[in-house]
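Lab notebook, bench 4. The sequencing result for the construct came back, and we need a structural model before the next group meeting so we can plan mutations. Quick request posted to the team channel:

Model the 3D structure of this chain.
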Amino acid sequence: MKTFGTRFLSKALIVGALAAMPAMALAQISIGLSVNVNIEPPAIPVYVQPPCPQPNFMWTPGYWAWDGVGDYYWVPGTWVEAPQPGYLWTPGYWGWGDGGVYAFHGGYWGTEVGFYGGVNYGFGYGGGGFAGGEWRGGVFAYNTAIVSVNTTVIHTTYVNTTIVTNTTIVNNSHSSFNGGPNGVTAKPTPQQEAFAKQPHVAATAAQTQHEQVAKQDKSNFASANHGVPAHAAVARPATSVAELQKNAVVAKAAPGAKPYVAHPAPAAAAKPAETAKPAPAPAKAAPAKPESATRPAQPAAHPEAAPKAAAKPEAAPKPAAPKPDAKPEAAPKAAAPKPAAPKPAAKPAPAAKPKEKEPPKN
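Done. Here's the predicted structure in token form:
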């Protein structure tokens, strides 16, 4: 496997290099390319397949690609013209490997469908082989029990429900990868291993452009749609984001699949750090308020702040002292008129004048 610094090469450089090589060489490079990620890919969503628009177009199921930075994005499923008659598409898949990382194995074209991790992509790709149709001479015949076609322009069809009733690989979780704790446990058969060593043809230019357009559509990123892309599939490979958003069908969450959460490892590490704060406080003085365990330490870190606070109250009574002094002075002034009231009470003194009648006693 390649290192983290070299595995995320520019897609433009890769395509340019591939264009200058023969088809047989393309096969070996397309299979060898891989991307190593330590985040589990989202589940395969549920969506309706658009009808095949014209003859000899092959269905390439949607898949989760890695942006090279830190997120998955959905590449919508689409119908693609085969590079030549007789060729079938083997989808790429994510595989869990040594060191707890996920490696992506790119898809390719060949005369047979090889191993794609046992992932159930639907629409004929139930985990092993392909049941959506077959080549008959130079014309592809579609199994309408599995795939949807536009019968007004496509007349080579048949019905075979055997694959529907005899499914050998069960993937109820819609897992998008092989191996690991939650992945599919399928292994390649001897026939598939032999076919993987044969020459193959890499993805066409239309497929490469379609993937790049999907990467430009930010709504297709798992961190934004939580594993349920708004633009799940289109009838033809998209050439622009506007075209993709206009013609794509909407996906639904896979039954039983958990919503995708970007970067689960950092989020899980943050929770223990927060819950560990109340633990160091052995003093059970404030059990209901874990934050109070840190508050007593704050005044202890600044003991000089307490005396300064005590000095301020001394200055406070000084301005308050003159106010009470002024009030007592006003009190006597108000009491001065009150003593004037008893003075009229002294007027009965003239009642003593009758004593002057004593002289007539002489």
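The chain has one domain: 4-257.
Will bring this to the meeting.
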